Amino acid sequence: MSLGVSDALSERGVHAASTSELPDAVSFNSHTSSPFSSKRSEGRAPVRSGHASLEVQIIAGESAVTSSYATNPLKLLTPRARGQSVWAYTSSFGGGLVAGDQTSLDLRVGPGARCFLGTQSSTRIYRNPAAIPSGHQTRAMLEAGSLLVFAPDPVQSFAGSTYSQRQAFYLGPEGNLVLLDWFTSGRVARGERWGCSHLASRNEVFVNGRVMFLDALLLSPADGELGANHRLGRFNCISTLLLLGPCVRHRATQLLEQVKGEPIERCGELVFSASPVADGSVLRIAGVSVEAVGQMIRRFLAPFSELLGDDPWSRKW
After folding, report:
1. What is the pTM of this model?
2. N or C, fewer C-beta in 10 Å, the chain?
3. Is the confidence at residue 28, as pLDDT, over 70?
4. Dihedral sign, CA of 186, 105, 208, 257?
């Protein structure tokens, strides 16, 4: 089923963020560290503001945080630092990004380890009349047999805001990824709907050094009013959910079957589609309300609670 926002899905999103810091592929072997570990090991490099790093390994049979740090304005919280799965949350002072903020996250999940990463709340992108670039980069390395459930709350772009993000995930043999990426129209209660000046997102997944999944989004009023009927129309939230890897393969197949059996409602509150990808599936949702989209996402994510040791969404959405 078409989401009716295909004009917003464009390779032009590749220009939204610098690609110079992200490697195109990673070779996995017993001596391989993460694509960003060389910077960390130098120890003498200046500390970047707005940077966080998290490493999870198997220690005595359980997933455990072995390295964690963050610099202002980014914060990294680990309420469950050891167990069946590590739980970690990113946050920032002020709950979002202002003009000129550039944040980054380096994440490594060791062989057989599990990690859930979310956010404390929606990431707010504040208005930016001067159009000074602001953005975020995530670089994650998932080693053999590891699992990462990357499920932040949505990005909420205020009117006049500018934001670009790029997220790259490098999966080793039998690596597993659940990736959620979603955006809201802004402060609807204040009459703001898709009033941002620039919103771009690019997600890349590499498996054993090969590009397995690439998804780019660009929303710009330069291409026409974002809230127009032929663009985002009545929808106030759009999302992408990717399931990839042998550990989540069964759930990915179930997702395809569930969506196939869902009734189609004319002018319904939700419009969604699911497609198979190599060793997984991808679900796309557009909704009139953020709450409706969140409830549907949670329904599809609920089975992963067994792999995470509990339900991280029990007090959310």
Report:
1. 0.85
2. N
3. no
4. negative
The span from the CA of 33 to the CA of 227, in Å, is 44
**Measured distance CA(263)–CA(197) in Å, rounded:** 36
Residue identified by tokens 């069946």 is 84
Cα–Cα distance measured from residue 90 to residue 74, given in angstroms and rounded to the nearest whole number: 7
* Cα separations in angstroms, 280 against 179, 238, 239, 261: 11, 20, 17, 18
The phi, psi pair for 93, rounded to 5°, reads -65, 125
The Cα-based distances of 41 to 20, 24, 191, 219, 285 in angstroms read 20, 21, 48, 38, 41
Distance CA 188, CA 254 (A): 34
Weakest-pLDDT range from 94-98, 169-173, 200-204, 277-281: 94-98
Cα–Cα distances (Å) from 93 to 73, 76, 97, 159, in that order, read 5, 11, 9, 20
Measured from the Cβ of residue 264, the count of other Cβ atoms closer than 10 Å reads 8
Residues 162-177 pLDDT 10s: 999 999 999 999 999 9
Round to whole Å and give the CA distance between 85 and 314.
16
Task: Tell me the two tokens of residue 298.
Answer: 């949670």
At 222-244, the pLDDT tens digits run: 999 999 988 999 999 999 999 99
- Structure-token pair, residue 9: 């899905």
Neighbours of 130 (CB within 10 A): 8
